[in-house]
Each structure stands twice: as structure tokens, then as C-alpha cells.
Amino acid sequence: MCKTLEDAPSVPVPNIQIIDMQSSDWWSISWDPIPVENVNGVLLGYRLIYYMNYRSGQEITGEKLKYTIEFDPFTHYYKQTNLFNYAIYNFSIIGFTSAGSSPAQEFQARTCKCKEVLFANSFIKDPFVLFDGKKVTGNFVNFLQDMVVQSCGTCNGYSSKLSKLYFDRTKFGGNPVKNSEFDLKLSISNDIDISFPIYGRNGYEVATNTSFMLLIQSPGIAAVQRDEQNADVMLTKMILKVLNVWSFLLISYVLGSLFGIFFWFTDQFINPEQFAIGNALKGILSGFWFAFITMTTIGYGDLTPRSFFAKLVSIVWFMIGLSLNSIIIGFIVTNITTVTLPADFIMYDTKVAALQNSFEYKTAVQRNSRLHNESYYKTIDVMLDDLQNGNIDIVYIDVYYLLDYQKLLERRLLKVAFIDTLNTGYGVVLSGSTTALLTEFKSFIKERSVTLMKFTQAFQTRLPALKTENTQETIAYLYTKSSQYKTSLICLGILLCLMTIFGLCMDFIKQSKKNKIHNKLNITDDIEELVSNFRTKFNAVAEQLTQNHREDYVRLFNLKKRYYNKSDEFSEIMSL
């Protein structure tokens, strides 16, 4: 028997058939044997060389990892499993002898983008996910199902050639609806493809080997605080702040008393009428009164120092009094200003409450906040209760958690004091094989941006208002909205009316009593006055009559005298 030297097969492996796009994790190939006349020796077998060239629509750069599988010469079919979804694999199949390998041709095999059945976990969060008593519903449930259908495309091996997303079942029969976002995050695994809704921002890693994709942009994280700018609370604080000036007033009164003693001591001998000499109590009280009314250099002028030393002490007291007065007024103004000015938003070393294991919780930790109660909060209502009771200073929660909370916040005297804008929002967490479709999902969201915007605008009116104040608005609000102010004004008005009526009544009673006493005590005097007036008038009339009588008597005398003179003259004439 003669034997020739072996050589490598001279032709490629013929009739290679590719079966791909049947599943997300396998493809298969088949081939015909190399013709005997082209083997050029003893065929030892076939060798499959494959590597992943594209992943998630992107070509893999750098050195590619190649895999080699050898078969016996009688094998003409192979199914490669446990592959990545949404991938393109390049492969070649060659026959080989001891002398070498046949020529190779490179082919491509594809895997489907998604599994035929996808599972989603969720928790009931208005307005994103709702529950009608039997199953989860809502616009976003339909939105995510449409996103899966359009982004995953078709796969020839599936019954309907389309992938389906289920919200009402899981791979192993568990409940897909969780009680809270915290429980939803705990359930994330490779067996769960989509988890929604979860709060975060792009690039936020909720769990290992997952991708977060933002759907709805949030206005930000709300800092809920006690509404200490509430008119009634602010009025009470303002009164308490003003009363805090008692320490300065005490110092002023003590100094005034000391200088009052100096005034009395230095001026009592020269000015005994005003500063009683030798009378310590009366003199010191006069000195204190003088010190008090001259504290602002005004005075009433009822007391004036006359001695040189008293005037010198007065000058010193004027200067001290001005300083004390300025301090007291400045203290009151500063305290009132601190009440009317809005408080600064500070999280450092502040007692903050946030939902357990939430994005807000991690942000608060990064800002060195003091997380109250080890942050074991699972509901917002418990946090608001602690805030209202004064156990914490800030509830740090996303704005969308406060939908329809406006009236509740007002009843509890709470407010949204600040919005921390961090480019955050609600989105989905992709896990398992769906992480490969991040780019396709983002493209779908971009195409539906108008739909998402309309959805967001639909519940904007349900969001609580951000309460901001300035000093003028706060003071105006104090005098227009404060029930305490209105009650005080009404009470003062009533008191003024009562005091006016009381004063008028007292004056009337006093006048009545005075008139009665006057009538009883002065009746004799009135009679005496009447008699005295009568006597005076009678005496005047009598005197007038006497005067008239005297005048008549004089006239009669003169007439008689003239008569006698005329008689004498007549007698003389007759005698002649």
C-alpha cells in the first residue's frame, strides 16, 4: 500500500446554514462535510471560532475575546447557548487535518434584543402606577409596555414575534406589587427586568449591574419645615422675642436707681424742694424718676438739678442712657427682624428625616445631616408627624410624594420651604438582560417626550406651593391674616368701648352724687343768700327813698325861703 503526504483541506466547509434571531441567548449553525476529494488527508474534525463583535448596537472596540470549539468529523450541527442578548457574533467553521486547516469564511449570527417574556415589579405610586383592586394600571404601565414592544423589535422564534412585559406576575410566582420603594429596590435581581417607579437621576446605581433610566423630571427634592412664618406663630414669637429684652431693661433700671441715689445725694441740700432733704425714700424715688425720664435726654422739666455735681452726674447719665436706649431698641429691632425674615435652608448638622434607603436619604447623608431615628421611615405621614411634634427640623422628600398634600400641610402648620434642584426624577431600573437596551429605551423616551410632558402638566396643580416670604409681605400678612392679631384688635376695641362707657357712667354717678350732696349741704346757705340779697336790695331802695326824701326836703326848704323873701319884698312895697 502506498501513502502520499497529507495536506490541509483545499476548500472551505460547504453549505453553512445559520439559524439565528430565534431567541435572546442562542443561535445554531449546520454544515455539510468537506468532499473527500478535497480533504487531502485524514479529516480530524471541525473547529468553530466565534467572538462577539457588536453589543447593544455598538461595535466592541479593542481586543475581542475569541472562543474555539472542536468537533469530531461526524458532527455537522451545533447550538451555542448562554449568549448575550442584543448581540452580533462573528464566527467561522473550518475542517482540519494533521497538516493544517481549510480556508475559512466569516459569518454573523444574531441574538434577539429581548426575552419573549419580561417581568416588571412596581409599587403603587400616584400618578405613575395605580391599582384598581385587581391589577396595576395607569398611563405609565401602558407606556412601558409600548416601550418594550417597540424597542425590542421582532424575534422569529417567539409565538407572536414580539416581547411582552407583565406587571401582574413574576418568574417564580411572587407578588410583583411591592409596599414601598424600599421593598421595590430590595426585589431587584436578574430575574426582574424592569422596576418602576424609582426615584433617582441618570447615572444613579440602585443595585449592582443595573441601569437607571429617567422618565419624568422632578422639580426637585422638597424641604418641608414647620411654618414658623404662620401669622399666629410669628406673632407669638415676636412677643416672646420682645420680652427677651428684660435683661437689658433690668440693667437699665438698676443703673437708673444708682444714678437716682447720686442725684438725690448731690442735690438735696441745694434743691430741697425737688429732692427732699433728709428723706431717703422720697428723695431716692425723685432721683429715680428724674433718671428714668431723662434717659433719652428729653425730660419733663418738673425736676432739674441745680448743684454742680448733680449737673455733672446728669451729663454722665445722659450719655449712658443714650447707649442703653440704643442697645434696647437695637435688640428689639433685631429680634423682630429675625422673626420676619425667612429662615435659611441648611442641612448640615440638622435633624432630617428621609425615606429609608432612598435617594433623598443618601443625599442627606452626603450633606452631613443628622438622620433622625436612624432613618427607619417608610411612609411620609410618619415623618410629617415627627416634624409637627418638633422631633425633626426637615422632611427631605421628593416633590411628587407631596401630591395633594397642600391642605394637610396647611392644617399642620407645615410648608415647603425650599426646593433642592438636583436634576432628579422618576424612572425605571433595568436589570438582567434589559440593561443592553438602555440606548433603545432612551430613544423611545425621546420620541415620546411630548407625551411625557403632557402627562407631567396634567398633575402640576396637585403639587404643593413653595412658600417664600420677604419682610414686607410677612408683616403685611401678619396684620391681615393673623387670627391672634384680629382677636387682639377686637378685644382692644371692646375694652376701649367698655372703659369709655364705664368712665361716662362713673362721671354721671359722681356728678349725681355731687349734686345731691350740694343740695343737702347748701340749702341754708341758699336761704341766707336769698335773705342777704333781699336785705341788700331793701337797703338800697330805702337809701334811695331817703335820698329822695332829703332832696324833696331841700327843695321844700328852698321854696319856703323864696316865699318868705318874696313876702318881705311885698311888705316893703306896700309900706311905701
Mean pLDDT: 83
What fraction, in percent, of the residue positions are helical?
A: 40-55%
* Structural class based on helices, strands and sheet pairing: alpha+beta
In DSSP terms (H or I, runs of 4 or more residues), the helix count works out at: 14
Cα separation of the termini: 245 Å
Structure summary, number of beta strands? 22
Calculate Rg over CA atoms.
55 Å
What fraction strand?
Answer: 15-25%
Detail the poorly predicted runs: none
Q: Which word captures the global form? A: rod-shaped
- Tell me about the biggest sheet? 6 strands, antiparallel
Helix and strand topology:
Blueprint: E1 17-19, E2 27-30, E3 45-55, E4 58-59, E5 66-71, E6 77-80, E7 87-97, E8 100-101, E9 107-110, E10 117-123, E11 130-131, E12 136-137, H1 139-152, E13 164-166, E14 177-178, H2 181-186, E15 194-200, E16 210-217, E17 221-226, H3 231-243, H4 246-267, H5 280-293, H6 308-340, E18 351-353, H7 359-366, E19 370-371, H8 380-388, E20 394-398, H9 406-411, E21 414-420, E22 425-431, H10 438-447, H11 449-458, H12 471-481, H13 483-521, H14 523-575
Parallel strand pairs: 10-13, 10-14, 10-15, 18-19, 18-20
Antiparallel strand pairs: 1-2, 2-6, 3-4, 3-5, 3-7, 7-8, 7-9, 11-12, 15-22, 16-22, 17-20, 17-21
Descriptive notes:
With 576 residues, the protein is α+β, with helices and mostly antiparallel strands. Helix content is 43%, strand content 19%. The protein has 14 helices and 22 strands. It has helices at residues 139-152, 181-186, 231-243, 246-267, 280-293, 308-340, 359-366, 380-388, 406-411, 438-447, 449-458, 471-481, 483-521, 523-575; strands at residues 17-19, 27-30, 45-55, 58-59, 66-71, 77-80, 87-97, 100-101, 107-110, 117-123, 130-131, 136-137, 164-166, 177-178, 194-200, 210-217, 221-226, 351-353, 370-371, 394-398, 414-420, 425-431. Strands 3, 4, 5, 7, 8 and 9 form a six-stranded antiparallel β-sheet that branches. Strands 10, 13, 14, 15, 16 and 22 form a six-stranded mixed β-sheet that branches. α1 (139-152) crosses α10 and α4 crosses α5.
